[in-house]
């Protein structure tokens, strides 16, 4: 484990904590896409099928459990919690996320490291994660305004992606036989999707103003 | 092994 990957994991963890904080503290999920959250829950559930078959480290196992539990907690809260559910921007969150699931699954059947149940779902989770932010970005684009905690949430998610790319560059130069082009290409695509959001995030940060996205 | 190497990240 290198410092970049650790920083990536931590910013990922922080992003989830910020999201939970927003929902629990404000009892509101406005600005948060339920579809993106459902996709993330699916991503973690399908990627960590190896939880019981391959042991890597205590750190990995705990983080996997945390990611699965937290993503399910967010989805349940947005769907079930009486007060939180009312603040959900249902009319803005209309992205057809089933297409993302379908496209990722077809791609996973075609491009995978090995044609086995676990490997296909692993590839599927990697592809789906790259696209899962789209409903969230579309929702923010449509609502125009981005509240503080939602902005921080997406910022930390983007930071996680950026650190993972630095991690791969580091590993490429320090490890022999480092080849994981499925994860790297998908990760790169995922990070590029955040570029626009980052641009407006930094503008609002520079001007010390509330974040706004152009219509 | 190769498999472990490629899935050691989160």
From TrEMBL, chain A:
Transmembrane stretches, start-end: 55-77, 98-115, 121-141, 153-173, 179-202
Its topology with respect to the membrane? Answer: Multi-pass membrane protein
**Subcellular localization:** Endoplasmic reticulum membrane
Which is one Gene Ontology cellular component term of this protein?
endoplasmic reticulum membrane
Q: Which GO terms describe its molecular function?
A: ER retention sequence binding
- List GO BP terms, alphabetically: protein retention in ER lumen; protein transport; vesicle-mediated transport
* Keywords from the named record: Endoplasmic reticulum, ER-Golgi transport, Membrane, Protein transport, Receptor, Transmembrane, Transmembrane helix, Transport
Q: Does this entry carry the keyword NADP?
A: no
Cross-referenced PANTHER family, in alphabetical order?
ER LUMEN PROTEIN RETAINING RECEPTOR (PTHR10585)
Its family remark reads: Belongs to the ERD2 family.
Its protein name is ER lumen protein-retaining receptor A-like
């Amino acid at each position: 484990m290198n410092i970049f990957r650790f920083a990536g994991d931590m910013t990922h963890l922080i992003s989830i904590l910020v999201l939970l904080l927003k929902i629990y503290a404000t009892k509101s999920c406005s600005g948060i896409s339920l579809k993106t959250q459902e996709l993330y829950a699916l991503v973690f559930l399908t990627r960590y099928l190896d939880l019981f078959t391959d042991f890597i480290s205590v750190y990995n196992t705990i983080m996997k459990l945390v990611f699965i539990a937290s993503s399910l907690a967010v989805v349940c809260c947005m769907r079930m919690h009486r007060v939180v559910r009312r603040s959900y921007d249902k009319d803005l969150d209309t992205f057809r996320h089933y297409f993302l699931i379908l496209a990722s699954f077809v791609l996973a059947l075609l491009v995978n490291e090995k044609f086995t149940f676990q490997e296909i779902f692993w590839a599927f989770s990697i592809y789906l994660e790259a696209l899962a932010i789209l409903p969230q970005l579309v929702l923010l684009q449509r609502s125009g305004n981005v509240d503080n905690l939602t902005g921080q949430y997406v910022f930390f998610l983007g930071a996680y992606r950026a650190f993972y790319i630095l991690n791969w560059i580091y590993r490429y130069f320090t490890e022999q036989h480092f080849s994981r082009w499925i994860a790297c290409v998908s990760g790169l695509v995922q990070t590029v999707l955040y570029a626009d959001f980052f641009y407006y995030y930094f503008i609002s940060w520079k001007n010390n103003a509330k974040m706004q996205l152009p219509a | 092994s190769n498999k472990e190497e490629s899935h050691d990240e989160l």
